[in-house]
Write a structure and sequence with these properties.
The chain is mainly alpha-helical. The protein is built from 12 helices and no strands.
Length: 204
C-alpha cells in the first residue's frame, strides 16, 4: 500500500487549503506542516504506546531512557528487560504489559509487523487492535507516521478534537458521528488534514 512522500504530502496540503478556507488560514498563518515520519517497526510502536494519554515530551523522555538500556531496540531485547527496570525508566505497569504483549505477538507471528506496509489500513487496524492496550488511536497514529497512509482521521485524538472545535467554531465538544462527518470532506487526505489541525493546536 503506497504511503505519502514529501511531494505528494505537499500536493495534498495545497489541495486541502484550496478546498477549505479554515485550513488555508492555518497554513497561511503558521506555514504548511511537514511530513512526520518514523521508521516502521517495534520501536516506533512502543513509542506510540508510551504516548498514550501523556504529553509527547514525557513519552519521549521515557522512550529515550528505555532505548539507553538496549543494545538494539528489538522485541527480543525488550523482553529481556525486567519489569522493575522498565518501571525505573518511567514505564507504567499498564504500558509494560501492553508493550510486552506487542513484543510477544511479533515473535509468535500474530503481528507480522515487518509486512504491515503491504496490508490495507483495515487489515493493519485489525491486527493492531487485536492486542490488549492497542486501540484505534494507536492504530491510526502508527498508520499515519510509520506507514505514512494518507487517509486517517483519528477522532480519538484530543489535540485533533480541540483544534477542530476551535477552527470550526463548534462550541461544545462534538460527538463521534459529527467528527466523522466533518472528516469526510477531507478524503482522501484526512491524515494531511489532521496534520494541519495539529499545527493549529500546537501554535494556539
Amino acid at each position: 500500500m503506497p504511503g505519502l512522500n514529501r511531494r505528494s504530502y505537499a500536493d495534498a496540503v495545497e489541495v486541502l487549503a484550496a478546498g477549505d478556507k479554515d485550513l488555508a488560514r492555518i497554513v497561511e498563518r503558521f506555514g504548511a506542516p511537514s511530513l512526520v515520519s518514523r521508521p516502521s517497526g517495534f520501536a516506533t510502536l512502543v513509542s506510540i504506546i508510551f504516548e498514550q494519554q501523556v504529553s509527547l515530551a514525557s513519552a519521549k523522555a521515557t522512550f529515550d531512557k528505555v532505548a539507553l538500556l538496549l543494545p538494539e531496540f528489538t522485541e527480543h531485547r525488550y523482553l529481556e528487560l525486567s519489569d522493575e527496570t522498565l518501571r525505573t525508566a518511567g514505564v507504567s505497569r499498564q504500558k509494560i504489559r501492553y508493550t510486552r504483549l506487542v513484543a510477544e505477538a511479533i515473535l509468535e507471528g500474530a503481528l507480522p509487523i515487518r509486512s504491515l506496509a503491504r496490508k490495507s489500513d483495515a487489515q493493519v487496524r485489525e491486527l493492531l487492535t487485536a492486542i490488549t492496550g492497542l486501540g484505534n488511536w494507536t492504530a491510526d497514529v502508527y498508520l499515519m507516521i510509520a506507514l505514512r497512509r494518507p487517509d486517517l482521521w483519528p477522532i480519538g485524538d484530543l489535540a485533533l478534537v480541540k483544534a477542530v472545535v476551535s477552527v470550526k467554531r463548534l462550541g461544545d465538544k462534538p460527538d463521534a458521528h459529527t467528527l466523522e462527518q466533518l472528516g469526510e470532506r477531507y478524503r482522501p487526505y484526512r491524515s494531511v488534514a489532521t496534520s494541519i489541525f495539529w499545527r493549529h493546536y500546537l501554535h494556539s
